[in-house]
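As promised in the previous annual report, we have extended the structural survey to additional targets. Below is the entry for tRNA-specific adenosine deaminase.
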Amino acid sequence: MSIADPEYLLHRGWMTHALKLAQAAGDAGEVPVGAVIVDAGGNVLAEGENRKERDKDPTAHAEIIALRAAAKILQNWHLNECTLYVTLEPCPMCAGAIIHSRLKLLVYGVDDTKTGAIRTVINIPDSAASNHRLKVIGGILESTCRQQLQAWFATRRHRRN
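The corresponding structure token record, generated without further manual editing, is:
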């Protein structure tokens, strides 16, 4: 996908929105990951940011929060006309939820070399365990997403020392 491609510009705009959500999570002491779900008409349907620490909930990842909110709004767990934008490649839990939601498209920012379950460490969408073929686009605003995470972790390490 070319930088001049209108589709790339659209994805870039939504990823910028997800980055703002990630910043809010980071400011609240959470790992800065943000997610936004857009409907077929290009409208924001739901948003999420990491809330594990605040909610004391191991499942409170940005993607899960956004998926739950979108399903509630639509009154349907099938999100087959929706796109999920998330700043970090989803983990195995989130990848499973994404598959089960029947999302049309997943767009993520940066690969997660430790727990990435879309393309990096394991590939749940293309595995035999997946009953849904998910279209995936990775690397949208990759360096910005990476820098945001690295800066947050560097600040946390500095505070501990």
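Residues 4-157 form a domain with the Cytidine Deaminase; domain 2 fold (CATH 3.40.140.10). The mean pLDDT is 95. These points will be discussed at the next consortium meeting with the crystallography subgroup.
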